[in-house]
Amino acid sequence: MAQHKAGFVNIIGNPNVGKSTLMNSFVGERLSIITSKAQTTRHRILGIVNGDDFQVLLSDTPGIIKPAYQLQESMMEFVKSAFEDADILLYLVELGEKDLKDESFFKKITSAKIPVLLLINKIDKGNEELLSEAVKMWQEKVPNAEVFAISALQNFGVPEVFNRIIELLPESPPFYPKDQLTDKPERFFVNEAIREKILMHYKKEIPYSVEIDTEEFIEDEEIIRIRSVIMVERETQKGIIIGHKGSALKRVGIEARKDLEKFFGKQIHLELYVKVNKNWRSDERQLRRFGYNN
User: From CA 69, how far away is CA 77, in angstroms rounded?
Assistant: First the structure.
């Protein structure tokens, strides 16, 4: 009988390279939210893929940035932790991209003692010549990596990468129960569904000034009743989130509810409120409360 394999596969890269799309392709569920805005992923999200003789623990981390305030520093701590427990590192770049935004992270990749798979994503947006140049450049820049060309959105090349991950996994018993999909609680996915709609529908600073706190999650046989609070930093932002006669907030609620009904497979009753929580992004106590400084 074949030995069981299990290990942590950590996905890192700049913002907007498609890490969340790749993660969801591997897992087959929308665990990570996806929008066109940078810094969509704030936490480290674990997705678990089980086979008869393997367990792949995929970790989607925030995009690498130079932190401007306390929240962003906490986000980069999640990236640092991804180097510490990884058995395999996936370094995701976009076709046409040249560098990682932080030199120290790049040095960690090029000196990694674990297998590194460098994935050139969004190849459907280029041509063969561009791809050939990119492969050559990245092979020179990261000589310790195996290079793959993929389109996470089209699922092109993704099964080949996954098969290679399974080959590289160390022998180990499973870390989590075989029917578990993620390490995050239900409330986390409620918060993320609401935050995704805010990222989609609001401009400028608003999406980055928002945090969600789900105060109530009551599950019955037929329905889940949820009450969530949208935290903003200023009174003016509260007015923008709510919109004229509550129209903007209503749209967020309707769209988030539809996604949550698909995710949980049950009817959802969702109540949304908006509160001002001044300077929460720079307040260590508040950041701990929202799960950033654990």
Answer: 13
Q: Are 189 and 263 in contact (CB under 8 A)?
A: yes
User: Which residues are known binding-site members?
Assistant: 13-20, 60-64, 121-124
Q: What is the pLDDT of residues 213-231, one digit of tens each?
A: 888 989 888 899 999 999 8
Which domains are present in the chain? 5-168 (3.40.50.300), 186-289 (3.30.300.20)
Q: Which residue type, as a one-letter code, is found at position 255?
A: E
- Detail the residues annotated as belonging to a binding site for GTP: 13-20, 60-64, 121-124
CA distances in angstroms from 214 to 113, 188, 271, listed in the order given: 40, 8, 10
Distance CA 45, CA 82 (A): 11
- Asked whether the whole model's pTM tops 0.70, one would answer no
Q: What are the residues whose beta carbons fall under 8 Å from the beta carbon of 81, sequence distance 6 or more?
A: 44
- Residue 61's pLDDT band (boundaries 50, 70, 90)? low
pLDDT for 293 = 57
